[in-house]
Design goal:
Layout: E1 6-13, H1 17-32, H2 39-57, E2 74-81, E3 85-92, H3 112-119, E4 122-128, E5 131-139, H4 172-184
Antiparallel strand pairs: 1-2, 2-3, 3-5, 4-5
Helix pairs in contact: 1-2, 2-3
The chain binds adenosine-5'-triphosphate (ATP) and magnesium ion (MG).
Length: 185
């Protein structure tokens, strides 16, 4: 991993409201870092990671009883800005690692990590603070099919003839001498 240029993070209680909160955090932070072009992919990825973390460690009832909220686990969302990519990391307190499943067409679940696998340059997991981090790296610039960064379009839409703008006007006396010289040939 190249040296982080930007880092920001957010602790959230492990309930389903964390999903929306993490999306807002991602949008605000990426826009602040000038990486607004990837917010759509980043929102999808963080939604899947945070939903998984809540399912593994928190309260998934959309209308939980007050008593269910008394001992909530925390999850942590960390965003790291690298030279040409960003890494989204989600920590939860459950040490078991996620398992990429091969969901069948009619399966209603098992698609979150498959989606991340398709969108991310890389993703993975590592143990941390008694639980684990699941992370995914997204490219900031669009990538060509060969994997190279696309060349930025020039702001000039049409090519200009050589010379023209910025060149001094022709020296009329010199041109006259050239014409006279040519006529003498
Ligand atoms: N943070 C996590 N902690 C523990 N296990 C996880 C975690 N994230 C994913 N898993 C495991 O990996 C499996 C695959 O995750 P994935 O997100 O692909 O599917 P899903 O969450 O079961 O369904 P879907 O995302 O389509 O609603 C999960 O069923 C779960 O067993
Ligand atoms: Mg999931």
């Amino acid at each position: 991993m190249s040296r982080p240029r930007f880092v920001d993070q957010l602790d959230l209680a492990a309930t389903l409201t964390a999903v929306n909160a993490s999306r807002n955090f991602i949008v605000i932070t990426l826009t602040k870092w000038g990486a607004g072009r990837i917010v759509d992919d980043a929102k999808l990825v963080v939604s899947e990671l945070v939903t998984n973390a809540v399912k593994a460690t928190g309260v998934t009832d959309p209308n939980p009883k007050w008593t269910a909220l008394s001992k909530l686990s925390l999850i942590n969302v960390r965003l790291v800005g690298l030279e040409a990519s960003i890494v989204i990391e989600v920590w939860d307190c459950e040490p078991n690692e996620p398992v990429l499943t091969d969901a069948a067409d009619d399966d209603e679940s098992g698609r979150g990590l498959t989606l991340i696998d398709a969108l991310a340059l890389k993703w993975g997991t590592y143990p941390s603070r008694g639980g684990k981090v699941v992370w995914a790296e997204l490219p900031v610039h669009p990538v060509t099919p060969k994997g190279l960064p696309q060349r930025r379009k020039s702001s000039r839409s049409t090519p200009r003839p050589a010379g023209g703008e910025g060149r001094p006007p022709p020296d009329r006396a010199l041109l006259q001498r050239v014409i006279v010289g040519l006529e003498r040939l």
